[in-house]
C-alpha cells in the first residue's frame, strides 16, 4: 500500500500517524518575493483552491489525521463509510477564511495547535512545505515529513527542473533558465531564433501552477512586448533578479504524470504513471492506467531513479510528481516539470487501492458546476442515483472532494467543482457513465 | 503625462472587446461596462497577461504591472478605467 510505504520511507515506520494538510497552490508562497511574469492573483479562484484541502481525507488512513477548513458534509462521510473507507480523524479550524489556505487558518487557531501538539508520534504531511507549514509544525511541535521549506522551494522551481534534467542527460525541449536580466537577454536571443524558424515558445514562471504564470508566444512582436514589460518592472523595482524558464513549445500527443517517493536514505520507489488530461495548461483529470508501452514505462522508471538521485543529493526526500509528454512519434519527454510535493494524482492512490478491482480502469475527473445555491451531498446523491460507486469493485463515480462544490457559494449563481474518480471495467462504460453524469449535473 | 491621456473611453471599451474576441477565439458581442470579464466573457488568470500585452500594442500605452489588482479586472468598465488611468 502506498501510504504505508510512504510512511516507512519518510518517517521510518509504516505505522506513523500523519496529519495531512491540503495547502494546495503552495507555489504562491514559494513565489513570494520572486520576480516571475507580471500577474494578478484572483481570489475568486482561490476560494475553491483553498477547499481542495478536503482531498487529504481520502489519502489518509484510519490512524491518521486531517486538518480541514470546514467539517465535511455528513452525508458524504456516510457514503464513504458505506463504501468501506476507514476515515481519518478530522480536525476543523475554528475560523475558515475562504481567501486563506488551511495552514493560515490553522496557525490562528490556538486550540487546534494545542490539540495537534498532543498527537504523540504524529508527523505533519503537507501538500508541499513553505515557511508557513514550517511555522505550523513548530507551533504544533510536530516534525514534518518533508525537508525544510528552503529545500522544498528550491526543488520545486522550474529552473531546478531544467537543471536537473540537464544534469541527468534526460531529454527536454530546447530552452533556457532565467535568473536575472542578463540571462533573459540570452534566452530571448535564443527564443527569437526559434520564432524565426516558425517555432513557438512558452515563457513560464518558475513557480507557476495550474496554467497560471505561463504565456505562449508565436510572434516576435509579442516577445518584444513582454521583454519591455519585464525590463520596465525591473528598472522600477531596481531589482534585476528573475525566475523564469523559456522553452520551445513542442508537439505532443499526451501529457503524463508519474510519481516516485525519495526515502531519507536516498532510495526511490516508482509509484505510478497516469495520463494527465489538461486544457490550456489547467489540470482536468487523469486516465488510469496511462496507455503506454512497457518500454515507455521502463524509460520513465529510469528517469525517476535518476531524478531521485539528484533530488536526494540536493537534500530532498519525499513524494515527487513529474510531468512528462509523449511526442507524436511516441518518443518521450521524460521531464517537463518536477513537482517535489504531493500532486493531484497522489490523492487518488489510497482509494484506488481500496476500491478498484484488478483489471478495472479509472478516469479522475473535474466536473465544473454552475449553481444557484448550495448543493448538498444528499441532493447530489439523488441526482446521480445509479451512477455513484456503491461498492468496492463496482463501477461508478466516487466523489473525492465535495468541499469544492460549495466553496464559492454566494448570493446568486456561482461556480463550483466536483472532483471524482470514475471507475469501470472498460473505456466504453467509463465514457457512458461520464456522459450521463455531465447530463445530470447542474 | 502623455497625450494619450485624452484617449476616448469608447475606444478603450471597443479595443478591450476586440482583443478579448481575438484571445478567446470567438465573437464577443453585446458587451457593456458592466459585463463581467471572468464570469461572462471567460477571461482567466492565464489570459490576463495576453490581454494586457495586446492592449499595450493596440492603444500604444505602457502598463505599470506592479499596480495590477484584481478589482481592475472585474468588468469591462473597471478595466477601461484602469487603462485610461495608465495611459
TrEMBL record, chain B:
<keyword id="KW-0597">Phosphoprotein</keyword>
<dbReference type="InterPro" id="IPR006162">
    <property type="entry name" value="Ppantetheine_attach_site"/>
</dbReference>
<protein>
    <submittedName>
        <fullName>Acyl carrier protein</fullName>
    </submittedName>
</protein>
<dbReference type="InterPro" id="IPR009081">
    <property type="entry name" value="PP-bd_ACP"/>
</dbReference>
<feature type="domain" description="Carrier">
    <location>
        <begin position="7"/>
        <end position="87"/>
    </location>
</feature>
<dbReference type="InterPro" id="IPR036736">
    <property type="entry name" value="ACP-like_sf"/>
</dbReference>
<dbReference type="Pfam" id="PF00550">
    <property type="entry name" value="PP-binding"/>
</dbReference>
<keyword id="KW-0596">Phosphopantetheine</keyword>
Amino acid at each position: 500500500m502506498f501510504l504505508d510505504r510512504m510512511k516507512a520511507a519518510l518517517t521510518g515506520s509504516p505505522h506513523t500517524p500523519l496529519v495531512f494538510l491540503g495547502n494546495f497552490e503552495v507555489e504562491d508562497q514559494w513565489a513570494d518575493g520572486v520576480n516571475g511574469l507580471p500577474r494578478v492573483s484572483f481570489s475568486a479562484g482561490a476560494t475553491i483552491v483553498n477547499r481542495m484541502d478536503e482531498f487529504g481525507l481520502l489519502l489518509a488512513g484510519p490512524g491518521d489525521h486531517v486538518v480541514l477548513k470546514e467539517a465535511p458534509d455528513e452525508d458524504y462521510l456516510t457514503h464513504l463509510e458505506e463504501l468501506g473507507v476507514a476515515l481519518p480523524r478530522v480536525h476543523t479550524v475554528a475560523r475558515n477564511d475562504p481567501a486563506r489556505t488551511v495552514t493560515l487558518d490553522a496557525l490562528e487557531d490556538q486550540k487546534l495547535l494545542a490539540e495537534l501538539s498532543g498527537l504523540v508520534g504524529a508527523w505533519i504531511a503537507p501538500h508541499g512545505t513553505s515557511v508557513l507549514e514550517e511555522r505550523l509544525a513548530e507551533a504544533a511541535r510536530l516534525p514534518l515529513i518533508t525537508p525544510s521549506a528552503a529545500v522544498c522551494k528550491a526543488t520545486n522551481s522550474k529552473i531546478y527542473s531544467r537543471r536537473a534534467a540537464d544534469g541527468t542527460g534526460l531529454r527536454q525541449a530546447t530552452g533556457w533558465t532565467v535568473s536575472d536580466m542578463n540571462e533573459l537577454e540570452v534566452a530571448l536571443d535564443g527564443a527569437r531564433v526559434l520564432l524565426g524558424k516558425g517555432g513557438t515558445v512558452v515563457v513560464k514562471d518558475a513557480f507557476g501552477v495550474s496554467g497560471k504564470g505561463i504565456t505562449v508566444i508565436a510572434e516576435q512582436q509579442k516577445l518584444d512586448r513582454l521583454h519591455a514589460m519585464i525590463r520596465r518592472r525591473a528598472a522600477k523595482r531596481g531589482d534585476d533578479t528573475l525566475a523564469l524558464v523559456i522553452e520551445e513549445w513542442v508537439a505532443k500527443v499526451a501529457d503524463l504524470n508519474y510519481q516516485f517517493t525519495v526515502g531519507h536514505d536516498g532510495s526511490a520507489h516508482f509509484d505510478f504513471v497516469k495520463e494527465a488530461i489538461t486544457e490550456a495548461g489547467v489540470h482536468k483529470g487523469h486516465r488510469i492506467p496511462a496507455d503506454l508501452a512497457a518500454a515507455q514505462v521502463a524509460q520513465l522508471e529510469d528517469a525517476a531513479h535518476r531524478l531521485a538521485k539528484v533530488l536526494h543529493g540536493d537534500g530532498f526526500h519525499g513524494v515527487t510528481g513529474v510531468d512528462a509528454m509523449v511526442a507524436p512519434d511516441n518518443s518521450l519527454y521524460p521531464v517537463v516539470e518536477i513537482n517535489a510535493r504531493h500532486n493531484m494524482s497522489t490523492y487518488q492512490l489510497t482509494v484506488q487501492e481500496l476500491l478498484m478491482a484488478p483489471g478495472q480502469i479509472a478516469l479522475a475527473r473535474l466536473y465544473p458546476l454552475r449553481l444557484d445555491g448550495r448543493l448538498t451531498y444528499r441532493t447530489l446523491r439523488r441526482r446521480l442515483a445509479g451512477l455513484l460507486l456503491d461498492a468496492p469493485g463496482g463501477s461508478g463515480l466516487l466523489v473525492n472532494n465535495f468541499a469544492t462544490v460549495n466553496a464559492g457559494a454566494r448570493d446568486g449563481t456561482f461556480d463550483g467543482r466536483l472532483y471524482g474518480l470514475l471507475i469501470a471495467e472498460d473505456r466504453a462504460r467509463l465514457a457512458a457513465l461520464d456522459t450521463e453524469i455531465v447530463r445530470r449535473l447542474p | 503625462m502623455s497625450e494619450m491621456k485624452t484617449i476616448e473611453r469608447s475606444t478603450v471599451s471597443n479595443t478591450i472587446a476586440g482583443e478579448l474576441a481575438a484571445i478567446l477565439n470567438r465573437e464577443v458581442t453585446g458587451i457593456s461596462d458592466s459585463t463581467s470579464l471572468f464570469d461572462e466573457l471567460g477571461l482567466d488568470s492565464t489570459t490576463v497577461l495576453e490581454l494586457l500585452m495586446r492592449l499595450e500594442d493596440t492603444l500604444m500605452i505602457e502598463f505599470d504591472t506592479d499596480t495590477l489588482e484584481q478589482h481592475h479586472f472585474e468588468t469591462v468598465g473597471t478595466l477601461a478605467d484602469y487603462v485610461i488611468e495608465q495611459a
